[in-house]
Amino acid sequence: MGMGHVILRVTIKVLFAPIVLFALYVQFHGDYGPGGGFQAGVIMAVAFVLHALGFGLQATKKAIPPRILTAGMALGVLIYAGTGVLTLLLGANFLDYDVIDPDSHHNAGQHIGILVVEFGVGLAVASTMLQIFYVFAGREAEPSDDAW
Amino acid sequence: MSLLDHLPVLPVVVPLVAAPVCVLLPKGRAPWLFSTLITWICFALSAALLGVVLQEGTLTYYLGGWAAPLGIVYRIDLAGAIVMALVSGMAALVFPYARSSVEYEIGNAQSSAFYGAFLICMTGLLGVVATGDAFNVFVFLEISSLSTYALVAMGAKQDRRALTAAFTYLVLGTIGATFFVIGLGLLYQMTGTLNMLDLHERLAGQDNKVVRAAFAFIVTGLGLKLAMFPLHRWLPDAYTFAPSAVTAFLASTATKVAVYAMLRFMFTVFGFSTPFTEVAFAFFLILGLAGMFFASFVAVFRDDVKQMLAFSSVAQIGYMLLGISFATEAGVAAALTHVFNHALMKAALFMAVGAVFYAVGSHRLADYRGMGRRMPFTAACFLIAGLSLVGVPLTAGFVSKFVLIRAAFDATLVVPSLLIVLLIVASSLLAVAYIGRVAYEMFLADPEPDVPPLRVPMTMLVPMGLVTAANVYVGLDGEAVVSVATRAAESLLALSFGGGAF
């Protein structure tokens, strides 16, 4: 790697951590303010898209292989639906978070439940966004079967 | 609370949880085995649900414990329970069939993603039916549609035209969904609620431009989704180029669920007090009749059997719209009966086409020559299901046409009933023409001498045989289907005259 694009690359390195931090802020502050899993997932993916733009797709794929992203997508949905199944098994309706912490006076169950669900959403959205970017940026005439 | 209390939500939740698990499974046969088991569990749950609804009446389930109309409600009445049982039943038959068919047509390299998408599609279709929340219908409709686009595109391994077919479907399906959601937005603006029953109460007596626009948007959007003539352009290509198993599943469920959503919105949400419904029924009548003839006529001249059947699907949707347009209990019951019976016919027909494709790698009519001798079982299934499509007595198709014709005589319509009946019979003759062409090639045309018989795995033959047997069974004893459909239509229409609490 020569000195090409040095300003861009340094800028991206500086920006990368704050973007990820902001994504986490939007993710976990989503219960109190605007935000939530979807927005956070997109912001998180953007950090890696930026990395790929500056350092090349291969470098990003080395950091986060596509195989992990597939697992991330599936796990995200599983965390979401799994929370619902958990409440179901605990004896309440599907996605009735109150049962997670039934003794709480200020509905802590609702709080924990939505936090976990939104984390699942964030994970699924971030993985999917990045996977879509990988497939588009890969620019092979035919996406290989291993792309999944 | 036992698990039985969660019965309304379980058929939707089980495939939803199973789909990501399926994606995580290693490639090969494992995803197929897993997803097939899931569809069987789902079918058992839906059948149990139908049993409970038949005995105890409409079930209501509050998601997250939030009461209606604020929370999302799953409300399953008889009409919904029938369609849910139909969708999961078809999945339980198509998934075993898919093993060999999919292995042959697209290989197993992406099997985990393929079966994951298949399960998601099923989740969406079941969700549309289960929910009693108008916006939730949109969400599930999109869940099923998006996975369908991917499934149709998988046909590209055999024919590259699957990609353009999937893209056309994507564009038109998205336009349909957009129209639908615009309509919902307008309704929400007028009423401040998305719960179907609450919407119905608040819409009663309202007549203004916003409600009329919302009505038009929703009917057009759903019309696109259910391939109402002339909004059917996406359907023939999508069904022709999708993998055989996908076509068999979609043809027997996807448009049926859209028809169900149309019934829901026409009768549960809007009801007869909405001033525009008369116009819509008149349009359904005219477009249904036009679709029956136009699409059947096109089907007669197709040389690709799969495409022929795809056009026939557009024509058959005409019969369902016709039933809805009567706006009587008998008419809606006829539409529901045909939804059920047409699913049986088209599943059997497309499974037979897939079996032939598995054996000879083509769906051109010319390649069907002598199939009566080379693949006797498949050819027999095709013939029986084809006769059912025509409406020959002792098949399911006869029951639907009989009920539809009886409903037409009882309805008071702008067009004379006798004319409609004549048109129904005439369009059946067109079905004779195109099914006859295939039957002629299979059984009567001189086969090339000394062609060996062709073998197809049992996993494909057994589901195909079961669906074909179901066609005959419903034809012999249609009373059960018709009486349940009539009860379902009664409960749908009772609501549309007003009242009803969530």
Structure description:
The complex is a heterodimer of chains A (148) and B (502). Chain A has 148 residues and is mainly α. Chain A is built from five helices and no strands. Chain A is elongated and about 60 Å long. Chain B has one domain. Chain B starts with 9 loop residues before the first helix and ends in a 6-residue tail after the last helix. The mean pLDDT of chain B is 88. The chains are: A mainly alpha (148), B mainly alpha (502). The interface between A and B is medium-sized, with 23 and 23 residues.
Estimate the mean pLDDT confidence of chain A: 87
E-strand count of chain B = 2
Instruction: Give the termini separation of chain B.
Output: 21 Å
- Described by its quaternary structure, the protein is heterodimer
Topology of this protein?
The complex is a heterodimer of chains A (148) and B (502).
Chain A: H1 6-28, H2 37-55, H3 57-63, H4 66-89, H5 108-138
Helix pairs in contact in A: 1-2, 2-3, 2-5, 4-5
Chain B: H1 10-24, H2 30-56, E1 59-62, E2 73-76, H3 78-106, H4 111-130, H5 134-153, H6 161-191, H7 196-203, H8 209-225, H9 234-241, H10 244-270, H11 277-300, H12 305-326, H13 329-360, H14 371-374, H15 376-390, H16 396-410, H17 417-444, H18 458-476, H19 479-496
Antiparallel strand pairs in B: 1-2
Helix pairs in contact in B: 1-2, 1-4, 2-3, 2-4, 3-4, 3-10, 3-13, 3-18, 3-19, 4-5, 4-10, 5-6, 5-10, 6-8, 6-9, 7-10, 8-10, 9-10, 9-12, 10-12, 10-13, 10-19, 11-12, 11-17, 12-13, 12-17, 13-15, 13-16, 13-18, 13-19, 15-17, 15-18, 16-17, 16-18
